[in-house]
Amino acid sequence: MTLTDQDTPQALELRRGAEAEASALPALLLAAEHLAATVQMGAHGRKRAGAGEEFWQYRPAHSGDEARFVDWRRSARSDTQFVRDREWQLAQSVHLWVDEAASMRFTGAETGRAARSTKGDRARLLALALAVLMIRGGERVGLAGPLCPPRPGRAQLMTLAQSLAGGGEGADYGAPEVMAITAQSRAVFVSDFFGDLDAIGLALGTLADRGVRGVMLQVLDPVEEDFPFDGRVIFESMGGTLAHETRKAGDLRARYLDRLAERRDRLATMAQAAGWQFSTHHTGDPAQAALLWLHAALERGL
Hints:
Layout: H1 9-38, E1 55-60, H2 72-75, E2 82-86, E3 93-98, H3 119-136, E4 140-143, H4 154-165, E5 186-191, H5 197-209, E6 213-220, H6 222-226, E7 233-236, E8 243-246, H7 253-273, E9 277-282, H8 287-301
Parallel strand pairs: 3-4, 3-5, 5-6, 6-9
Antiparallel strand pairs: 1-2, 7-8
Helix pairs in contact: 1-3, 1-4, 3-4, 3-8, 5-7
């Protein structure tokens, strides 16, 4: 058998690489859709009056209501005139920022024990599952960077899966991208937020000035929450740029937990000041609860 022009070694190698890349995309999207399916949202809606086609409720007519909005059939059954409200269904643009810093590659799962996702894997899964829910509800979803602007539809989910599955080899700690986030839109930040707090505060302030509201989900490994270290330990950042050796790791636990709590309080305060919502999720916990919180928190801000 001879190789055709399309079956040269270079072409075969390229095809194998493309197939390997393609096989990774559906895996992330399939996992996200499975997670989204476990969260029973019911009918998607804003539960407030506004522009839309779906009936929401009857309410008594008020001074200033136009006659064309009065439901005369319903009003004929009583002495009061009723207006037929429709549910608000204006599509929103939602921007996702998923931290790709080296710190997100951490998992504290020990060899021989049950596998546990890295923080980055859990963050990508939650972000894409949220995108599935939002796009199914008619919203436009994209990334915070300029390469994947918000769009509706199934094709956008494939684009998001491809972008998120790529991951990154970033610095030790990340900071949110905000330049491409449009005014009056919504944003979702998923990170461990171990980076520079001033950079995070600047991003939130910039977005608040544009009328952007959103949610921040801090993703941590249980080891980072518990600090179960004692004796001689070498602590090293995932990027390898920072290291600290101690012979009495247990003596650091109280100070570490105090600083972690202080950081979390500052993040919550900054989020509140910007009109955002903040919560923490652990990779040792089921992803469904975090997805429920993300969806509900984002809906409250829409």
